[in-house]
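Data availability excerpt. The first of two example chains:
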Amino acid sequence: MNKPFPPLPFGSERADLDKSPLEIRGLLSQPIWRELRTFLAVAKSPSFAQAAELLGTSAPTVSRDVKRLQDQIGSQLVISTFSGVTLTETGRKLAIQVAELDFQLFALSNDLKDEMDAVTGRVAVSVTSGLAVAIVAPAVPRLNDSYPRLNLDIREQVSLVNFEKNQADLMISLSPISRADVDCVEIGTLHLIPVASRDYLKKSGVPQRQFISQHVYVQCNYYDSDRETWNGWRGLVHAGHQTHNCENSLAYYALVRNGAGVGLLGNYVLADPELVPLELGVHVALPIYLISVANRRQSRPVAAVYDWIVDIFRTNPSFGTGLTFPSGRHEQEESLRKMLETIAPPPPSQFG
Protein backbone atom coordinates (compact mmCIF):
# COMPACT_ATOMS: atom_id res chain seq x y z
CA MET A 1 0.00 0.00 0.00
CA ASN A 2 1.44 3.37 -0.98
CA LYS A 3 2.15 5.74 1.83
CA PRO A 4 0.03 8.92 1.51
CA PHE A 5 1.79 12.20 0.88
CA PRO A 6 2.00 14.50 3.90
CA PRO A 7 0.13 17.83 3.79
CA LEU A 8 1.71 20.37 1.45
CA PRO A 9 3.63 23.07 3.35
CA PHE A 10 2.83 25.75 0.76
CA GLY A 11 -0.19 26.49 -1.40
CA SER A 12 -0.85 28.37 -4.63
CA GLU A 13 -1.88 31.43 -2.61
CA ARG A 14 1.83 32.08 -1.88
CA ALA A 15 2.61 33.82 -5.17
CA ASP A 16 5.84 35.16 -3.66
CA LEU A 17 7.19 31.59 -3.65
CA ASP A 18 6.49 30.99 -7.34
CA LYS A 19 7.86 33.99 -9.19
CA SER A 20 8.14 34.26 -12.93
CA PRO A 21 11.62 34.85 -14.44
CA LEU A 22 10.51 38.40 -15.29
CA GLU A 23 10.04 39.15 -11.59
CA ILE A 24 13.62 38.23 -10.68
CA ARG A 25 15.73 41.28 -11.55
CA GLY A 26 19.09 39.58 -11.13
CA LEU A 27 18.26 36.60 -13.38
CA LEU A 28 20.13 37.62 -16.54
CA SER A 29 22.54 35.73 -18.75
CA GLN A 30 26.04 36.97 -19.51
CA PRO A 31 26.22 39.81 -22.08
CA ILE A 32 27.11 37.50 -24.97
CA TRP A 33 24.07 37.63 -27.24
CA ARG A 34 25.92 39.39 -30.05
CA GLU A 35 28.91 37.09 -29.69
CA LEU A 36 26.66 34.03 -29.92
CA ARG A 37 25.16 35.29 -33.18
CA THR A 38 28.64 35.93 -34.54
CA PHE A 39 29.74 32.45 -33.46
CA LEU A 40 26.75 30.89 -35.25
CA ALA A 41 27.75 32.69 -38.46
CA VAL A 42 31.30 31.34 -38.06
CA ALA A 43 29.93 27.82 -37.49
CA LYS A 44 28.06 28.11 -40.81
CA SER A 45 31.04 29.51 -42.74
CA PRO A 46 34.42 28.12 -43.78
CA SER A 47 36.30 31.27 -42.71
CA PHE A 48 36.07 34.43 -40.61
CA ALA A 49 35.95 36.46 -43.83
CA GLN A 50 32.86 34.66 -45.11
CA ALA A 51 31.22 34.84 -41.69
CA ALA A 52 31.87 38.60 -41.73
CA GLU A 53 30.25 38.85 -45.17
CA LEU A 54 27.21 36.99 -43.83
CA LEU A 55 26.94 39.44 -40.91
CA GLY A 56 27.78 42.58 -42.87
CA THR A 57 30.85 43.37 -40.77
CA SER A 58 34.63 42.86 -40.88
CA ALA A 59 36.73 39.74 -40.30
CA PRO A 60 38.66 41.34 -37.37
CA THR A 61 35.33 42.15 -35.67
CA VAL A 62 34.24 38.53 -36.08
CA SER A 63 37.54 37.31 -34.65
CA ARG A 64 37.22 39.62 -31.63
CA ASP A 65 33.65 38.50 -30.95
CA VAL A 66 34.65 34.84 -31.04
CA LYS A 67 37.61 35.46 -28.72
CA ARG A 68 35.38 37.38 -26.30
CA LEU A 69 32.86 34.51 -26.29
CA GLN A 70 35.60 31.95 -25.64
CA ASP A 71 36.90 34.05 -22.74
CA GLN A 72 33.41 34.34 -21.24
CA ILE A 73 32.74 30.60 -21.55
CA GLY A 74 36.25 29.53 -20.64
CA SER A 75 36.60 27.03 -23.46
CA GLN A 76 38.03 26.99 -26.98
CA LEU A 77 35.27 26.83 -29.58
CA VAL A 78 37.08 27.49 -32.86
CA ILE A 79 40.41 26.47 -34.37
CA SER A 80 41.66 28.97 -36.95
CA THR A 81 44.24 27.95 -39.56
CA PHE A 82 45.44 29.29 -42.90
CA SER A 83 42.94 26.99 -44.64
CA GLY A 84 39.96 28.25 -42.63
CA VAL A 85 38.17 27.60 -39.36
CA THR A 86 36.93 24.40 -37.74
CA LEU A 87 34.88 23.85 -34.61
CA THR A 88 36.13 22.00 -31.56
CA GLU A 89 33.85 19.35 -30.10
CA THR A 90 32.65 21.89 -27.52
CA GLY A 91 32.14 24.43 -30.31
CA ARG A 92 30.11 21.96 -32.37
CA LYS A 93 27.79 21.19 -29.44
CA LEU A 94 27.32 24.89 -28.69
CA ALA A 95 26.68 25.66 -32.38
CA ILE A 96 23.84 23.12 -32.50
CA GLN A 97 22.24 24.61 -29.38
CA VAL A 98 22.64 28.18 -30.64
CA ALA A 99 21.15 27.20 -34.04
CA GLU A 100 18.08 25.82 -32.25
CA LEU A 101 17.81 29.02 -30.19
CA ASP A 102 18.17 31.07 -33.37
CA PHE A 103 15.26 29.19 -34.94
CA GLN A 104 13.11 29.82 -31.86
CA LEU A 105 13.91 33.53 -32.06
CA PHE A 106 13.08 33.46 -35.77
CA ALA A 107 9.66 31.93 -35.06
CA LEU A 108 9.06 34.34 -32.16
CA SER A 109 9.90 37.40 -34.27
CA ASN A 110 7.50 36.21 -36.98
CA ASP A 111 4.76 35.77 -34.37
CA LEU A 112 5.31 39.29 -33.06
CA LYS A 113 5.04 40.68 -36.58
CA ASP A 114 1.80 38.76 -37.00
CA GLU A 115 0.20 40.79 -34.22
CA MET A 116 0.32 43.92 -36.39
CA ASP A 117 -2.29 42.44 -38.66
CA ALA A 118 -4.24 39.19 -38.65
CA VAL A 119 -2.66 37.90 -41.87
CA THR A 120 0.37 40.10 -42.30
CA GLY A 121 3.94 38.96 -41.94
CA ARG A 122 6.54 36.67 -43.44
CA VAL A 123 6.10 32.90 -43.72
CA ALA A 124 9.16 30.85 -44.71
CA VAL A 125 8.57 27.70 -46.75
CA SER A 126 11.33 25.18 -47.43
CA VAL A 127 10.90 23.23 -50.68
CA THR A 128 13.05 21.54 -53.32
CA SER A 129 13.92 23.72 -56.31
CA GLY A 130 11.95 21.54 -58.73
CA LEU A 131 8.66 21.75 -56.83
CA ALA A 132 9.32 25.40 -55.96
CA VAL A 133 9.64 26.46 -59.60
CA ALA A 134 7.06 24.14 -61.15
CA ILE A 135 4.30 24.08 -58.53
CA VAL A 136 4.69 26.54 -55.65
CA ALA A 137 5.87 29.74 -57.33
CA PRO A 138 3.25 29.71 -60.15
CA ALA A 139 0.47 29.50 -57.53
CA VAL A 140 1.67 32.52 -55.51
CA PRO A 141 -0.65 34.98 -57.32
CA ARG A 142 -3.61 33.03 -55.90
CA LEU A 143 -2.16 33.51 -52.42
CA ASN A 144 -1.65 37.23 -53.11
CA ASP A 145 -5.29 37.61 -54.15
CA SER A 146 -6.46 36.31 -50.78
CA TYR A 147 -3.73 37.79 -48.57
CA PRO A 148 -2.10 40.80 -50.28
CA ARG A 149 -0.09 41.75 -47.16
CA LEU A 150 1.40 38.31 -46.61
CA ASN A 151 5.09 37.88 -47.48
CA LEU A 152 6.10 34.40 -48.68
CA ASP A 153 9.77 33.45 -48.24
CA ILE A 154 10.52 30.42 -50.49
CA ARG A 155 13.76 28.77 -49.35
CA GLU A 156 15.94 26.11 -50.96
CA GLN A 157 16.15 23.03 -48.77
CA VAL A 158 19.41 22.73 -46.85
CA SER A 159 18.37 19.28 -45.60
CA LEU A 160 15.83 16.87 -47.08
CA VAL A 161 15.32 15.09 -43.75
CA ASN A 162 15.96 17.62 -40.95
CA PHE A 163 13.27 20.25 -40.44
CA GLU A 164 15.23 22.53 -38.09
CA LYS A 165 18.21 22.89 -40.42
CA ASN A 166 15.99 24.58 -43.01
CA GLN A 167 14.90 27.29 -40.54
CA ALA A 168 11.43 27.60 -42.02
CA ASP A 169 7.85 27.75 -40.77
CA LEU A 170 6.76 25.02 -43.18
CA MET A 171 8.63 22.31 -45.10
CA ILE A 172 7.41 20.42 -48.17
CA SER A 173 9.24 17.12 -47.82
CA LEU A 174 9.53 13.67 -49.37
CA SER A 175 10.57 12.21 -46.01
CA PRO A 176 8.09 11.98 -43.11
CA ILE A 177 9.06 13.12 -39.63
CA SER A 178 7.55 11.31 -36.66
CA ARG A 179 8.01 13.42 -33.53
CA ALA A 180 5.68 14.68 -30.84
CA ASP A 181 6.70 18.30 -31.46
CA VAL A 182 6.17 18.17 -35.24
CA ASP A 183 2.99 17.99 -37.35
CA CYS A 184 3.40 15.93 -40.53
CA VAL A 185 0.55 15.43 -43.03
CA GLU A 186 0.56 13.77 -46.45
CA ILE A 187 -0.64 16.16 -49.18
CA GLY A 188 0.01 14.22 -52.38
CA THR A 189 2.24 11.81 -54.28
CA LEU A 190 5.20 12.61 -56.50
CA HIS A 191 5.26 10.20 -59.46
CA LEU A 192 8.70 9.81 -61.04
CA ILE A 193 8.87 8.03 -64.41
CA PRO A 194 11.43 7.69 -67.23
CA VAL A 195 11.01 10.38 -69.88
CA ALA A 196 12.92 11.60 -72.91
CA SER A 197 12.68 14.55 -75.24
CA ARG A 198 11.27 14.24 -78.74
CA ASP A 199 14.66 15.36 -80.04
CA TYR A 200 16.38 12.45 -78.25
CA LEU A 201 13.80 9.94 -79.57
CA LYS A 202 14.28 11.22 -83.11
CA LYS A 203 18.05 10.68 -82.89
CA SER A 204 18.21 7.47 -80.81
CA GLY A 205 14.82 5.78 -81.19
CA VAL A 206 12.28 4.87 -78.53
CA PRO A 207 13.92 2.95 -75.65
CA GLN A 208 12.53 -0.55 -75.07
CA ARG A 209 13.38 -2.95 -72.26
CA GLN A 210 15.17 -5.41 -74.58
CA PHE A 211 17.36 -2.59 -75.92
CA ILE A 212 18.11 -0.66 -72.70
CA SER A 213 21.86 -0.93 -73.17
CA GLN A 214 21.66 1.05 -76.42
CA HIS A 215 20.52 4.22 -74.65
CA VAL A 216 22.07 6.87 -72.43
CA TYR A 217 20.69 7.98 -69.09
CA VAL A 218 21.04 11.17 -67.05
CA GLN A 219 21.54 10.39 -63.36
CA CYS A 220 20.59 12.58 -60.41
CA ASN A 221 22.47 12.46 -57.11
CA TYR A 222 19.20 12.03 -55.22
CA TYR A 223 18.39 8.87 -57.18
CA ASP A 224 21.84 7.31 -56.78
CA SER A 225 20.93 5.50 -53.57
CA ASP A 226 21.05 1.88 -52.45
CA ARG A 227 17.50 2.17 -51.06
CA GLU A 228 15.02 -0.30 -52.59
CA THR A 229 12.90 2.62 -53.81
CA TRP A 230 15.42 3.35 -56.57
CA ASN A 231 16.19 -0.24 -57.69
CA GLY A 232 14.21 -0.02 -60.93
CA TRP A 233 15.77 3.23 -62.08
CA ARG A 234 19.25 2.25 -60.93
CA GLY A 235 18.92 -0.96 -62.96
CA LEU A 236 18.20 1.03 -66.12
CA VAL A 237 21.18 3.33 -65.58
CA HIS A 238 23.56 0.42 -64.89
CA ALA A 239 22.30 -1.57 -67.88
CA GLY A 240 22.69 1.40 -70.21
CA HIS A 241 25.24 4.18 -70.34
CA GLN A 242 25.26 7.02 -67.80
CA THR A 243 26.07 10.14 -69.75
CA HIS A 244 25.74 12.91 -67.16
CA ASN A 245 25.12 13.39 -63.44
CA CYS A 246 23.31 16.35 -61.93
CA GLU A 247 22.15 17.47 -58.46
CA ASN A 248 20.20 20.62 -59.33
CA SER A 249 16.58 19.79 -60.22
CA LEU A 250 16.20 22.51 -62.84
CA ALA A 251 19.49 21.70 -64.54
CA TYR A 252 18.50 18.01 -64.56
CA TYR A 253 15.22 18.86 -66.27
CA ALA A 254 17.03 21.06 -68.81
CA LEU A 255 19.49 18.25 -69.65
CA VAL A 256 16.68 15.79 -70.36
CA ARG A 257 14.56 18.40 -72.15
CA ASN A 258 17.41 19.24 -74.53
CA GLY A 259 18.10 15.64 -75.52
CA ALA A 260 21.04 14.70 -73.27
CA GLY A 261 19.48 11.33 -72.46
CA VAL A 262 16.67 9.51 -70.67
CA GLY A 263 15.83 10.97 -67.26
CA LEU A 264 13.61 10.23 -64.27
CA LEU A 265 11.21 13.15 -63.85
CA GLY A 266 7.89 13.95 -62.21
CA ASN A 267 4.83 13.23 -64.36
CA TYR A 268 3.80 16.88 -64.03
CA VAL A 269 6.60 17.96 -66.43
CA LEU A 270 4.72 16.18 -69.21
CA ALA A 271 2.71 19.39 -69.45
CA ASP A 272 5.67 20.21 -71.70
CA PRO A 273 4.79 18.62 -75.09
CA GLU A 274 8.50 18.17 -75.87
CA LEU A 275 8.77 15.41 -73.24
CA VAL A 276 7.49 11.85 -73.76
CA PRO A 277 6.86 9.17 -71.09
CA LEU A 278 8.64 5.85 -71.65
CA GLU A 279 7.25 2.41 -70.83
CA LEU A 280 10.29 0.84 -69.17
CA GLY A 281 8.64 -0.69 -66.12
CA VAL A 282 9.86 2.01 -63.74
CA HIS A 283 7.54 4.10 -61.58
CA VAL A 284 8.74 5.65 -58.30
CA ALA A 285 5.83 6.94 -56.18
CA LEU A 286 6.93 9.15 -53.29
CA PRO A 287 4.45 10.59 -50.77
CA ILE A 288 4.70 14.36 -50.31
CA TYR A 289 4.47 15.69 -46.75
CA LEU A 290 3.82 19.13 -45.31
CA ILE A 291 5.71 19.57 -42.06
CA SER A 292 5.45 22.22 -39.36
CA VAL A 293 6.25 22.67 -35.71
CA ALA A 294 3.32 21.58 -33.54
CA ASN A 295 0.99 24.50 -32.75
CA ARG A 296 2.74 26.70 -35.34
CA ARG A 297 -0.52 26.96 -37.26
CA GLN A 298 -1.94 29.01 -34.41
CA SER A 299 -0.25 31.86 -36.27
CA ARG A 300 -2.83 33.01 -38.83
CA PRO A 301 -0.30 33.79 -41.60
CA VAL A 302 1.26 30.33 -41.21
CA ALA A 303 -2.20 28.75 -41.19
CA ALA A 304 -3.10 30.64 -44.38
CA VAL A 305 0.02 29.46 -46.22
CA TYR A 306 -0.43 25.93 -44.85
CA ASP A 307 -3.97 25.69 -46.26
CA TRP A 308 -2.83 27.21 -49.57
CA ILE A 309 -0.06 24.60 -49.97
CA VAL A 310 -2.43 21.75 -49.16
CA ASP A 311 -4.86 23.08 -51.77
CA ILE A 312 -2.37 23.50 -54.63
CA PHE A 313 -1.14 19.91 -54.26
CA ARG A 314 -4.44 18.17 -53.53
CA THR A 315 -6.27 19.88 -56.40
CA ASN A 316 -3.52 19.08 -58.92
CA PRO A 317 -4.32 15.72 -60.58
CA SER A 318 -0.63 15.04 -61.19
CA PHE A 319 -0.17 14.52 -57.44
CA GLY A 320 -3.03 12.08 -56.94
CA THR A 321 -2.55 8.57 -55.57
CA GLY A 322 -2.49 6.98 -59.03
CA LEU A 323 -0.20 7.82 -61.94
CA THR A 324 -1.84 10.15 -64.45
CA PHE A 325 -0.59 12.28 -67.32
CA PRO A 326 -1.44 15.95 -67.91
CA SER A 327 -4.60 16.30 -69.99
CA GLY A 328 -4.11 19.92 -71.03
CA ARG A 329 -7.50 20.81 -69.57
CA HIS A 330 -6.28 22.25 -66.26
CA GLU A 331 -5.18 25.84 -65.78
CA GLN A 332 -2.17 24.72 -63.69
CA GLU A 333 -0.90 22.59 -66.61
CA GLU A 334 -1.02 25.46 -69.11
CA SER A 335 0.80 27.87 -66.78
CA LEU A 336 3.39 25.16 -66.04
CA ARG A 337 3.91 24.51 -69.76
CA LYS A 338 4.61 28.19 -70.41
CA MET A 339 6.97 28.40 -67.46
CA LEU A 340 8.91 25.27 -68.51
CA GLU A 341 9.46 26.75 -71.96
CA THR A 342 11.25 29.70 -70.37
CA ILE A 343 13.66 27.30 -68.61
CA ALA A 344 14.45 25.18 -71.65
CA PRO A 345 13.28 26.60 -75.01
CA PRO A 346 12.30 24.01 -77.63
CA PRO A 347 15.30 22.55 -79.49
CA PRO A 348 15.60 23.43 -83.20
CA SER A 349 15.02 19.81 -84.22
CA GLN A 350 11.49 18.53 -83.37
CA PHE A 351 8.90 16.08 -84.54
CA GLY A 352 6.29 17.65 -86.68
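And the second chain:
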Amino acid sequence: MLPDSLALIPPPPLAGSTALADDQEVARSTFRLRDTPRFALAASDYDLKLTHLTSDFFLRAQHPDHQRGFSLSVHVAVSRLQ
Protein backbone atom coordinates (compact mmCIF):
# COMPACT_ATOMS: atom_id res chain seq x y z
CA MET A 1 0.00 0.00 0.00
CA LEU A 2 1.34 3.43 -0.92
CA PRO A 3 1.57 6.15 1.73
CA ASP A 4 -0.89 9.03 1.64
CA SER A 5 1.29 11.82 0.23
CA LEU A 6 -1.18 14.47 1.38
CA ALA A 7 -0.58 13.36 4.96
CA LEU A 8 3.21 13.57 4.50
CA ILE A 9 3.48 16.96 2.82
CA PRO A 10 2.37 20.06 4.71
CA PRO A 11 -0.07 22.47 3.05
CA PRO A 12 1.35 25.45 1.16
CA PRO A 13 2.07 28.61 3.15
CA LEU A 14 -0.80 31.03 3.62
CA ALA A 15 -0.95 34.15 1.46
CA GLY A 16 0.90 37.02 3.12
CA SER A 17 2.68 34.77 5.62
CA THR A 18 6.36 34.86 6.50
CA ALA A 19 6.64 31.27 5.30
CA LEU A 20 5.35 32.27 1.85
CA ALA A 21 7.80 35.19 1.71
CA ASP A 22 10.62 32.79 2.62
CA ASP A 23 9.57 30.32 -0.10
CA GLN A 24 9.44 33.08 -2.68
CA GLU A 25 12.89 34.36 -1.68
CA VAL A 26 14.38 30.88 -2.00
CA ALA A 27 12.79 30.53 -5.45
CA ARG A 28 14.18 33.93 -6.54
CA SER A 29 17.64 33.04 -5.27
CA THR A 30 17.77 30.02 -7.60
CA PHE A 31 17.21 32.14 -10.73
CA ARG A 32 20.89 33.12 -10.78
CA LEU A 33 21.77 29.44 -11.22
CA ARG A 34 20.09 29.22 -14.63
CA ASP A 35 22.47 28.24 -17.44
CA THR A 36 25.00 26.79 -14.98
CA PRO A 37 26.15 23.18 -14.66
CA ARG A 38 24.43 22.98 -11.26
CA PHE A 39 21.08 24.00 -12.76
CA ALA A 40 21.49 21.46 -15.57
CA LEU A 41 22.20 18.74 -13.00
CA ALA A 42 19.13 19.70 -10.97
CA ALA A 43 16.96 19.64 -14.10
CA SER A 44 18.39 16.24 -15.01
CA ASP A 45 17.71 14.91 -11.51
CA TYR A 46 14.09 15.96 -11.91
CA ASP A 47 13.69 13.74 -14.99
CA LEU A 48 11.98 10.67 -13.53
CA LYS A 49 11.33 8.81 -16.78
CA LEU A 50 12.44 5.19 -16.52
CA THR A 51 14.83 5.48 -19.48
CA HIS A 52 16.64 8.39 -17.83
CA LEU A 53 16.80 6.68 -14.44
CA THR A 54 18.14 3.44 -15.83
CA SER A 55 20.72 5.11 -18.08
CA ASP A 56 22.04 7.09 -15.11
CA PHE A 57 22.14 3.90 -13.02
CA PHE A 58 24.09 1.97 -15.66
CA LEU A 59 26.49 4.85 -16.36
CA ARG A 60 27.36 4.92 -12.67
CA ALA A 61 27.72 1.16 -12.61
CA GLN A 62 30.27 1.28 -15.43
CA HIS A 63 32.37 4.03 -13.83
CA PRO A 64 35.56 2.58 -12.27
CA ASP A 65 35.05 4.48 -9.01
CA HIS A 66 31.62 2.92 -8.57
CA GLN A 67 32.26 -0.63 -9.80
CA ARG A 68 33.07 -2.15 -6.42
CA GLY A 69 30.18 -0.51 -4.63
CA PHE A 70 27.84 -1.29 -7.50
CA SER A 71 28.74 -4.97 -7.46
CA LEU A 72 28.14 -5.14 -3.72
CA SER A 73 24.79 -3.31 -4.07
CA VAL A 74 23.63 -5.69 -6.80
CA HIS A 75 24.71 -8.70 -4.75
CA VAL A 76 22.82 -7.44 -1.69
CA ALA A 77 19.72 -6.59 -3.73
CA VAL A 78 19.67 -9.98 -5.48
CA SER A 79 20.26 -11.88 -2.25
CA ARG A 80 17.27 -10.13 -0.69
CA LEU A 81 15.06 -11.21 -3.60
CA GLN A 82 15.94 -14.88 -3.15
